[in-house]
Amino acid sequence: MRIDIVTIFPEFFDVLDLSLLGKARQSGLIELGVHNLRDHTHDRHHSVDDTPYGGGAGMVMKPEPWGASLDAILGTDPDPATTDPATTGMPIAADDGPILIFPSPAGDQFTQAMARELSLEQHLIFGCGRYEGIDQRVVDHYSQRGRVRLVSLGDYVLNGGEVAVMAMIEAIGRLIPGVVGNPLSLVEESHEDGLLEYPSYTKPASWRGLDVPPVLLSGNHGAISIWRRQQQIERTERVRPDLLPRTI
């Protein structure tokens, strides 16, 4: 998978050199490009924002640097009226080109199901907004040329899109075949079957007066499976009862 990120804080994504995703990059499972939006500005202050039309607090990210940066990644004609599907990587109404994702409180909620869907794509592009957001015309323009999605991590607001993009890349990247060493570990995780994961234990069998549930020491794999399923249901009912109607 190819992942491109546009941001004014490229150093934020140095963390992608660590852990499983870092190994995935080294092995070629994930190809990453981090692009500084300020590289596509032309004033001495490298400004990427301006005051909003209509007034109001805060600043809005300007369309020009976003257009230049995204066009450089896509290698496409910036004018949708002249985009030729035979010669460009992101034609009008493309359904097989890259997906351009903007974190936004106004977007669809990011879920495990969405992460799995996106993990099947060949190329994802993330645009990290800041301030009061990105000029709407950027979203409108690229929606005419290909697949664009607004995605929200939840009902809260962050200072910028970097944290949201990092979370999405982590969730998506680990689902790419070969990134996680044991693929069976992905099957039993929270949200994979609509339920939260059961509690886990390891050695020693007793720690500070707390014992591992006896069934896990029994060697009876049928009983262990039943216990784990019951724990999933009970935990989900207690913590996330909203998930139960879809699964139980």
Helix content: 25-40%
Instruction: Give the SSE order as H and E letters.
Output: EHEEEHEHEHEHHEEH
Shape: elongated
Task: Provide the gyration radius in Å.
Answer: 22 Å
* Count of alpha and pi helical runs: 7
Structural features, described:
The two termini are 35 Å apart. The strands form three sheets. The chain has a five-stranded parallel beta sheet with strand order 2-1-6-5-7. Strands 3-4 form a two-stranded antiparallel ribbon. The model is unreliable at 82-89 (pLDDT under 50). It is built from seven helices and nine strands. The longest helix is centred in the C-terminal third of the chain and has 19 residues, at 221-239. By secondary structure, the chain is α/β, with parallel strands linked by helices.
List the helices and strands and how they pair.
Layout: E1 2-7, H1 19-27, E2 31-36, E3 49-50, E4 60-61, H2 63-74, E5 99-109, H3 112-118, E6 123-127, H4 136-145, E7 147-152, H5 162-173, H6 184-187, E8 206-207, E9 210-211, H7 221-239
Parallel strand pairs: 1-2, 1-6, 5-6, 5-7
Antiparallel strand pairs: 3-4, 8-9
List keywords for this structure.
single chain, 248 residues, alpha/beta, five-stranded parallel β-sheet, two-stranded antiparallel sheet, 7 helices, 9 strands
Question: In short, what is this structure?
Answer:
The chain has 248 residues and is of the alpha/beta class. Helices cover 29% and strands 17% of the residues. The protein has 7 helices and 9 strands.
